[in-house]
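Dear Dr. K.,

Following up on our conversation at the group meeting, I've run the structure prediction for Probable branched-chain-amino-acid aminotransferase from Phaeovulum veldkampii DSM 11550. I'm pasting the input sequence below exactly as I used it, so you can double-check it against your construct before we proceed with anything downstream. Let me know if the numbering doesn't match what you have in your notebook.
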Amino acid sequence: RIVYVNGAYVPEEEAKVSVFDRGFLMADGVYEVTSVLGGKLLDFAGHARRLDRSLRELGMEMPMSEADLLAIHRELVARNDVVDGMVYLQITRGNPGDRDFAFPPAGTPLTVVLFTQSKPGLADNPQAKTGLRVISIEDIRWGRRDIKTVQLLYPSMGKMMAKKAGVDDAWFVEDGFVTEGTSNNAYIVSGGKIITRNLGSDILHGITRAAVLRFAAEAQMEVEERPFTLAEAHAADEAFITSASAFVMPVVELDGQKIGAGAPGPVAKRLREIYLDESRKTAV
Ligand code: PLP
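The predicted structure tokens came back this morning:
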């Protein structure tokens, strides 16, 4: 695999990042994951915009133009022959040359790393037909979940808790309300309405979420952006998640109890189709 590190395209074995890099020592960095379908990037502009925001919220600046960023994404997709898969991008506060809690002086170059992951048949994931089983776990993440940082230890632990419970994923719950999934936004369908938590600092502002809510409104589907309780989720007609790599994925079981009929519901299925169709049209 050819990866990108600070301006150079190199074989992954030759890629180097300092042991003093703040991403490595302090999880002081942000990331984006952009899906590739048919060799093209989905929702690229949305991911670039959120990256810019994540960096600014942490006092960093986009180290290149959006056009240059797109060119690197495309170059990696081409060099690695990615048809379906994703491009991972990470920008950290760089290497101050020593370990120090204080931020390095302005002008310290940021570390920019990108690599690809091939996932043949990504859009035909068989899980879309069966749906995911999830458990709920307490949300003990930090208070700025709207910033897409590489501080992913608790979400990783959440995935492991799900694995141990024999299911696919976990939904975080705070004060009785569902926030989001370990790596996705969470939705229920109840009384014909699509309900998902409103944007704030307690969830990541999903790029797929924004697109799906736009398509839902265009299709005259009713959407309510508000926190919903775990009890509401248990009693819902359907549930689903969204993310750049899962697109729209039905959820059929929560904490060992079936949601609705215990099978992917019509709203999730329809939104998945619309999302895949529409986002392919604007892929770059
Ligand atoms: N919420 C969390 C915590 C995530 O990690 C992610 C994606 O990684 C999402 C939501 C979905 O965001 P997006 O649709 O931009 O992939």
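Two things stood out to me. Residues 33, 180, 183-185, 204, 206-209, 242-244 surround pyridoxal-5'-phosphate (CB under 6 Å). Residues 127-281 form a domain with the D-amino Acid Aminotransferase; Chain A, domain 2 fold (CATH 3.20.10.10).

Best regards,
J.T.
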